Each structure stands twice: as C-alpha cells, then as structure tokens.
Amino acid sequence: MAEPTRRDETNGIAGRTAADIADSVRALLDEGALRPGDALPSVRALADHLGVNRNTAVAAYGLLSRSGLVVAGGRAGTRVASPARVASEGYATGTALRDVGAGNPDPALIPDPSRLLPSIAGRPALYGEPVIDSDLDAWARAWMASDVAPDELSLTLTGGAVDAVERLLAQALTRDDAVALEDPCWLASIHTVRLAGYRAVPVPVDHEGMTVDGLRAALDQGVRAIVCTPRAQNPTGASLTERRAASLRAVLADHPHVLVIEDDHYSLLSQRPFLSIVGPHHRRWALVRSVSKFLGPDMSLAFTASDPQTAERLAMRLSPGTTWVSHLLQRLTHALLTDRETRGVIARAGLHYAARNEAFAARLAVHGVDAVPGDGLSLWVPVAAPAREVAARLEDRGWLARTGDEFVLGASSAPGAHLRLTVHDLADADAEALAADVAASSGPTR
C-alpha cells in the first residue's frame, strides 16, 4: 500500500505560527477540503510535519477550539466541529402542544400604534441628517439621565438591543478575546459571542444577580468586556440588590477599562429599581435599553448611553452609510412613549406580568415546588428530576416547556434542573393545571 502524501498526513494544513496554522484550517473549511466530523492530525504529527514546536500546534488548536471550529476529544483526537443546534426565543412551530416556553409579551398588552400613525407623517429624512430625531433624542436623554450622570451621557441609537450589544463588543474586542456572560444566559448573548469568535467566560447568577466571586474569577481570566442584566435577568428573573450592586462595583474598581455593558431590556416594565454595577470612576461602560418588551418585538430600536470614547467608536459603526435606524420608526416610538394612554398600557402590563408570575409561584408552592417569582416575562422553576426528562413528561400532558439546559454556556456549565415557563397569558384554570402537571412530572423540590 502506498504511503500517504504529505497533504494526507496533515489535511493540507500549513503555517509556521499558531495564528497561521489556525487560518490555514479556516481556509480549508471555507474551501470544503475539511468538513464537519473530519479528524485533524495529532499535535505531534502536525508539529513534526510543519517543523514547529509542539506548543505552537497546541496553541493553534486552542485558537480553533475557542472559536468553536474544532472539538478536542482527548485520546479520540481533534475533529472539525459539527454545526450545533442553536436554540432561539419565540413560539415553536408545527406543534399542537400548549407553548409555555416562548418568552413573548402578551399581544393584548402591546400598545396599538395605529391611532398615532398619522401624527408621524412629515418631511422624509435624507442622508446626512442627524441619526437620531431631535424629539426622540431629547426624550431619551431625559429618560437615561435619571440613571446616568448627564455630563457623561453620550447617546447612540441602534436597531434593537442585540444589535447594540453586538456592535459594542465588536468595537472593543477582537476574535478570541474573553467576555464575561451571566450563566445561565440570555440566548441572544450566547449566540452573539459564539458567532463572533469571542471566548465566553461564565459568571454564575443567583437570586441577587451576577455573583461577586464569579465576576472576580472572570476578571482574573482576563475578560475585556462584561454583559450584565441589572434587573429581570433572562432566564432567571433575578434583579440586582443594593448590596450585590455595591459589591460588584467594588470588584470592578480595579478594572476601570473593562467594557461593562448593562442590558436593561425590561426597563419600563420592571417592578424593581435600576441598580448599576458601574462605579463613578469606571472608564468604559454602556447602558442599553430596548423598547421591544413593551412596544413589541417589531419595534426594533434601542437606546445606548455610554462613555464618550465608547460612543465615538460605536458611532463609527453606525453612520448612515452602514446602518440606518428608520426615522419613521423613531417618530412612532417617540409618539408612543410620550402618549399618556400608551404609558398607561405599559404600566398595566408590567403589573400584570408580575402578578401572574407571583400567582403561578403560589400555585406551585401548594404542590410542593418552590419557585421565586422574579422580574420579567417568564418564571424560572426548579425541578427535582433532569429538566429534559421533566419537559418530556410535560409533553405527554400537552405542554411544551423550555428547559434550563438551553441557557447554559457550554460543557463547563452544569445543566440546570430548571424550566423557564411563560405563564402570564394562561387563564386561572390552565395555570392550575400546569402547576399540577409540573409537580407531577418533577416531584417536590423542598
């Protein structure tokens, strides 16, 4: 049998530095020469063939692994990663089950914009005009100024919170940089970090929010950015307490140049005060507030208040030539947010979500399941059995639930024995039936 060629031995991988070797593998993936599941040469074989130190080959595989392009299997070797199923928010399609995992606001509590549409007609906006309409700019600055020092407030507008977080990270990081994310974490943040090739460092969340020890450990690992949800953390519903916020600010005091992104996605709906982990001398920070939870997901617009340097860098990525936040959308947003009837609907919605979560937690308690009714659209419910098993049993009873496993950051995180349930739109009889079925499917957790 003929001996394999050098290309067979290394799959065509070339390079003398770790970065060059990793780029070579990426090029082979782009060309289709390497496919998901293909085995890569061992570190020894690759180093010997390329004439480099084995540490260089290890470093190259480390870059590829952190980018999610390869999977290290120990003695089984390193293989090209297969595309993993990506969980996403929203209603499930093609199912007859009652969906209690969607995480959506109640359509009946989203303000109707139709009566205000005539008020936004006017002169069309043209290229070169200010990115933010003057009326909306003034309203947003007044709103943000209650939580941000006015003399530090630089305002940027983006196409939603996900767009804001993605661009904030992009202006501060390069591929393989470390980012601290809450664990469990909002799905969109997991996707954003993974697809950009950043390295997610999990920070555990408890009932008071991001933990102090977790943040300290993440900073020790060299994170260059932190994404924190100060209230209504998704999926747990946790909100920062005064004590926790102060402790986190103390930890960050020694790291003033780490970018801190506070995603206050629930803002006007929240029943909890806004508490920041950004201290008065922190240099890099951004507060993001979207309107989608209370004006509806289709109103894809978010405000970002930040330090001047971050705002300048973000604005460079948001010029009208690259991103245009519709001025019609801006005018409609301003009309809604300054309308007394709309603000009344938003206030009632926030109270409704909180009351329904509290009522469902009380129902669960009667059945021996302890769940803390946090802030937000959903409830984080502990279960005694593995969450996927509980979800499967609930399917047999007609319910489609979302498991906590989907919100953890990866193999290094222990799958949570939790369900995230969206119950605010259930009638009392349905809520009682679901509470009983959750208890029957999981067993008591006291």
TrEMBL record:
Entries under Pfam families matching the protein: Aminotran_1_2 (PF00155), GntR (PF00392)
Stored PANTHER family: HTH-TYPE TRANSCRIPTIONAL REGULATORY PROTEIN GABR (PTHR46577:SF1)
InterPro entries: Aminotransferase_I/II_large, HTH_trans_reg/aminotransferase, PyrdxlP-dep_Trfase, PyrdxlP-dep_Trfase_major, Tscrpt_reg_HTH_GntR, WH-like_DNA-bd_sf, WH_DNA-bd_sf
Segments forming domain HTH gntR-type: 15-83
Biological source species: Microbacterium marinilacus
Superkingdom to which the source organism belongs: Bacteria
MF-aspect GO terms: transaminase activity
Keywords: Aminotransferase, DNA-binding, Pyridoxal phosphate, Transcription, Transcription regulation, Transferase
Family the entry assigns: In the C-terminal section; belongs to the class-I pyridoxal-phosphate-dependent aminotransferase family.
Coiled-coil spans in chain: none
Name recorded for this polypeptide: Aminotransferase class I/II-fold pyridoxal phosphate-dependent enzyme
